[in-house]
Amino acid sequence: MTGRRSPPEPEDRAGDEAAAPAASEEEATPVRVMVVDDHPVWRDGVRADLERDGTATVVAEAADGGEAIETCRAAMPDVILMDLRLPTVSGVEAIRRIVEESPHVRILVLSVSGDEADVVDAIKAGATGYVLKSASAPDVVEAVHKVSRGEPVFTPSLAGLVLEEFRRLASRDPSEPGLTPRENEILKYVQRKRSRTTSRTSSPSSSCGSATN
């Protein structure tokens, strides 16, 4: 049967156009971040760096470990940027308690300390990454996004410390406590990233990245 085709219904096209913005809005949802540091000026600077391009938003702040635990319960951020040197409750203890209560919240340590004990204690307490405060603003923002996706992130000079310590723990006598499943996951991830980095010795490296980039 021949005849003229009916034009598409305007309602259908309007519906498709209305659905498209909703999908893009979902993809562009900013990472919800909580900043924990006892220096207000530092928190203000971190907030400005994170919110500059609109891909992250600071939903809460805390000045000490005890406040961080309480505030996390109310704000439920995607990622917590956590200093370690905090009053009342240490950063490591705050990490441990937050991860126990809210395992879906990712924690990225942002500290001046590069001491092996601090790095290992923070990761064993449940932090997903550890970046030094000397890192550039773009590197910190990138680290926040990677940690939000569950990727372990370390300042390169610290990744080796984590790798060696976790290797040591993994090779201990079977009768002694070994690595947790999560620690094994981080160990494998760091090994994989270091192997990749070694094979790209000619490429420049940034100050922080996923494990070692």
Quickly count the domains: 1
The second-level CATH architecture is 3-Layer(aba) Sandwich
The portion of residues forming beta strands comes to 5-15%
Strand tally, please? 6
CATH topology assignment: Rossmann fold
The low-confidence runs, each spanning 5 or more residues with pLDDT under 50, are 10-27, 201-207
- Global shape: globular
Notes on the structure:
- This protein has helices spanning 10-27, 40-51, 65-75, 91-101, 116-125, 137-148, 156-170, 181-198; strands at residues 31-36, 56-62, 79-82, 106-111, 129-132, 153-154.
- With 213 residues, it is an alpha/beta fold.
- It has a single domain, classed as 3-Layer(aba) Sandwich (Rossmann fold), CATH 3.40.50.2300.
- The chain has a six-stranded parallel β-sheet, with helices on both faces.
- It is globular, with a radius of gyration of 22 Å.
Structure summarized in a few sentences:
With 213 residues, this protein is an alpha/beta fold. It has helices at 10-27, 40-51, 65-75, 91-101, 116-125, 137-148, 156-170, 181-198, and strands at 31-36, 56-62, 79-82, 106-111, 129-132, 153-154. The chain has a six-stranded parallel beta sheet with strand order 2-1-3-4-5-6, with helices on both faces.
Which key phrases capture this entry?
single chain, six-stranded parallel β-sheet, 213 residues, alpha/beta
List the helices and strands and how they pair.
Elements: H1 10-27, E1 31-36, H2 40-51, E2 56-62, H3 65-75, E3 79-82, H4 91-101, E4 106-111, H5 116-125, E5 129-132, H6 137-148, E6 153-154, H7 156-170, H8 181-198
Parallel strand pairs: 1-2, 1-3, 3-4, 4-5, 5-6
